[in-house]
Amino acid sequence: KAGVTQTPRYLIKTRGQQVTLSCSPISGHRSVSWYQQTPGQGLQFLFEYFSETQRNKGNFPGRFSGRQFSNSRSEMNVSTLELGDSALYLCASSPGASGGKETQYFGPGTRLLVL
Amino acid sequence: QQQVKQSPQSLIVQKGGISIINCAYENTAFDYFPWYQQFPGKGPALLIAIRPDVSEKKEGRFTISFNKSAKQFSLHIMDSQPGDSATYFCAASKRAGSYQLTFGKGTKLSVIP
C-alpha cells in the first residue's frame, strides 16, 4: 500500500499570500489529521477530519482552515501568511473505525517558508 | 501550557548502551501514550504505544514504562544502535473518538559507535 502523500513537498511564499497544501491518505483510511512542526513549538495539532467532517480543532487562528473530500483526500489552507507560519506541515491518516485508538501514519510533510 | 514535558532535549549514547527518555503529563484525561521516531526529512513513525492500565510494554529493543500515579512514562531503548539515531517524541491523547495527539518537544538521540 502506498503511504501518506503530501504535495507540494516544499513551498516558498511571501507575507500576506495564501497557501493550500494537499494530503492523500493511505487507501481505505477515512481520518486525516494535520499538525504543524516548528523548532520552537514542536508538533502541534491543527485539526482532524473524518468522513468530510471536522471532528477536532487545535488552538490555531481562523486563518488556518481545512477540508476533506469524499475520497478522503484533504487540503489545508492558510490565508494572510505570516513569517511565523514557516513550518513543516504534517498530515497523518488513520482508518478511523475505532476512533483515536489506531496508529496514525504520517506523511513526509510540506516544508513552508514564508518570506 | 505544555501538557506533555519531555526530557532530555538531546542524548548521546554509545553503541550497545541503554537510551532512556522521560515524559510527564498533567492532564489525567489522557489515556493513550504513543512514542514516535522521526528521521530527518521524514514524518514521525509510531514506535510503540501504551495505555494506563498497563505498567510496561515491550516490543523488541523498545520498552515503555508507565507510572500512572506519578503521571510519568518513559522509553527505554536497549542495545542502542547507530541506526536508532533520530528524534523521539512522546505523545498523549485524551479519549476514544479523538486522534488529537499532544506531543512532547522531542529528544534528539545520537548513538555513537
Write structural notes for this entry.
The complex is a heterodimer of chains A (115) and B (113). Chain A is mainly β and 115 residues long. Chain A has strands at 5-7, 10-13, 19-24, 31-38, 42-50, 53-57, 64-68, 74-78, 87-94, 105-106, 110-114. Chain B is mainly β. In chain B, strands 2, 4, 5, 9, 10 and 11 form a six-stranded mixed sheet that branches. In chain B, strands 1-3-8-7-6 form a five-stranded antiparallel sheet, with no helix packed on it. Chains A and B meet through strand 4, strand 5, strand 9 and strand 10 of A and strand 5 and strand 10 of B.
What is the strand and helix layout of this fold?
The complex is a heterodimer of chains A (115) and B (113).
Chain A: E1 5-7, E2 10-13, E3 19-24, E4 31-38, E5 42-50, E6 53-57, E7 64-68, E8 74-78, E9 87-94, E10 105-106, E11 110-114
Chain B: E1 4-7, E2 10-14, E3 19-25, E4 33-38, E5 45-50, E6 56-59, E7 62-67, E8 72-77, E9 86-92, E10 102-103, E11 107-112
Parallel strand pairs in B: 2-11
Antiparallel strand pairs in B: 1-3, 3-8, 4-5, 4-9, 6-7, 7-8, 9-10, 9-11
List keywords for this structure.
heterodimer; A: 115 residues; 0% helix; B: 113 residues; mainly beta; 5-stranded antiparallel beta sheet; 11 strands
Which pair of chains has the greatest number of interface residues, and how are they split between the two chains?
A-B, 26 and 25 residues
Largest sheet of chain A: 7 strands, mixed
Beta-sheet strand percentage of chain B?
A: over 45%
Low-confidence stretches of chain A: none
Our Rg estimate of chain A from Cα atoms comes to 13 Å
Question: What is the first-to-last residue Cα distance of chain B?
Answer: 38 Å
As residue ranges, the low-confidence spans of chain B are none
Order of helices and strands of chain B: EEEEEEEEEEE
- The average pLDDT value of chain B, as a whole number, equals 93
Total strands of chain A: 11
Overall morphology of chain B? globular
- In round numbers, the mean pLDDT of chain A is 93
**What is the tally of helical segments of chain A?**
0
Sheet with the most strands, sense and barrel status of chain B: 6 strands, mixed
Q: Indicate the radius of gyration of chain B in whole angstroms.
A: 13 Å
